[in-house]
Design goal:
295 residues; two-stranded antiparallel ribbon; 24% strand
Length: 295
Amino acid sequence: MRTNKVKKAIIPAAGSGTRLLPATKAMAKEMMPIVDKPTIQLIVEEAVASGIEEILIITGKGKRPIEDHFDANIELEATLREKGKLDLLKLVEDNFGAKIYFVRQPYPKGLGDAVLQAKAFVGNEPFVVLLGDDIMSDTTPLSKQLIDSYYKTNTSQIAVMEVEPSQTSSYGIIDVDSQLEEGLYNVKKFVEKPKPEDAPSNLAIIGRYLLTPDIFSILENLEPGVGGEIQLTDAIDQLNRTQRVFAKTFRGVRYDTGNKLGLITTNIQYGLEHPEVKEGLKQYIIDLAKKLEKE
């Protein structure tokens, strides 16, 4: 029997992170720090803040540090407790607020194949997919926005936002049919990474999905698409032919941590809000600006 409550989430984290080489040669890209937290912890925190109770992280070769991070470190906790470093103890104790599980994607066949690994975990329930490269900042977590919209429509939701027309070849793009309400679109079709001249719009899929379990039967029979991989966008396009898939516009700030510049700028933005480093970082930026003006 299908349940309507959204309580499960999937975080695909099996990618190789080639855009961050050489750092990712021996380090999972999802473990790259944003000030003092691994990127993937921020993704988990978004899911938990959205009401998610169970999370499945899809891993691959070289991703064991992710599992270690979300596991207890009894020796470290004991040392901090003995030394009275209770503030640091709070940072490392298991207090993530959800049950976290792991499954391995044996071969890198694409995002669609990664999501398919979660079929048994999901069962007959709707679920959220959060990509590990994208950190979303808004008053209401983006995953919560999708869940709230799902409760209104009882159908799949995809997060989108406007991008420059020249960037469409890097994203899945939606072809808008009509607008159900402000920022919520009926979608005619989903197109994976179209050239700018072929793109039906500049509304790009940005790494947050709420899907019904019907997606799995499509993924199981889907032929490889762009790049010879099983593309989740292609599966969503097929799903949209039999049951409506809505696109919800994200109005907050998206940080792409999957490339070098994005990782640096994300650290600066989060650093400017971090209580331990914000004042020092502000002063550094002021001093740097003055220095650059003189050059």
